Amino acid sequence: MVIDFLFIIKAIVVAIVEGLTEFVPVSSTGHMILVSNLIGFQGEFVKMFEVVIQLGAILAVVVLYWQKIRDSVIDFFAYIFTKGKKGEVGFRFGMNVIYGSIPALIIGLAFHKKIKTLFNAKAVVIGFIVGGILLIVIENMFRKNKRAVRDIDKITVIQSLKIGVFQCLAMWPGMSRSASTIMGGWVSGLSTSIAAEFSFFLAIPAMVGSSGLDLLSFDYSLMNLTTIISLIVGFVVAFLVSLVVMEGFISYLKKKPMRIFAIYRLIAGIIFGILIFKGIVIV
């Protein structure tokens, strides 16, 4: 069987894009749609490929925050089995992740097929620009809150639910799940770095759930040696790049505002809008 190396190279490019953009507020889905369009990496397999490499990015969260996840899971069940005598902190954190995931779960299950119809270049451009404007406005209004929560274990149920509602904005491609949850964190009274970290944890159930629905509906008869290699390499590349980007992103947020990402989104939205108008990027 002949291996299509050009196809694999394109897969690596898209995986790098996923790793670079999944956890920063610029929309990984939007970038993958636009880049895939530009390099001619399209088709039914590509839809599944994008889902799988997003799971690679999620694995980076698990690895980077393994101790927090492990301790929280242990505390969660300790609290249940001891009837609240042990593990209160981990139980509360776990419940906050569950509460924050509920809005996206409800909307995602109810409108999954309709949401997928939005995945096109024109919708991404709109998401880039609208999301960029919202980032600037909400950051200016809430980022300098001196009473902001600076401990991820001090997040309340109401704050978790508010962030979960904002996460639903990410169902519009180009809006960015990271940007949506961080904006929700600001509005809810969280510091920027804590909002970003909480968005990492919310990504686990949100993306695993969404990916599961997509993988169940994929036609696996389309698989061949080239696509199998692409999946494996893409998963590993997305994981490694995400791991590096996440650590750098949190360090950046502790010192700098997110305005630079908003400006990037606006510029990218305008550029891609022009490319669509000129017919270079197909809607």
What key attributes describe this structure?
peptidoglycan synthesis; mainly alpha; cell shape; cell membrane; antibiotic resistance; transmembrane helix
Structure description:
The structure is a single chain. The protein has one domain. It is 75% helix and 0% strand. It has 11 helices and no strands. Helix 5 (88-116) runs parallel beside helix 7. It is globular and about 60 Å long. The chain starts with a helix and ends in a 6-residue tail after the last helix. The model has no long low-confidence stretch (mean pLDDT 91).
Short description:
With 283 residues, this protein is mainly alpha-helical. The chain contains eleven helices and no strands.
**Count of DSSP helices?**
11
Mean pLDDT: 91
- Main sheet record: none
Written as H for each helix and E for each strand, in order along the chain, the element string is HHHHHHHHHHH
- Apparent shape: globular
Strand content: under 5%
Q: How far do the termini sit from each other? A: 34 Å
Unreliable runs, pLDDT <50, ≥5 residues? none
Radius of gyration equals 19 Å
- How many strands? 0
Helix content: over 70%
Instruction: Please identify the structural class as seen in this structure.
Output: mainly alpha
Query: Number of domains in the coordinates?
Result: 1
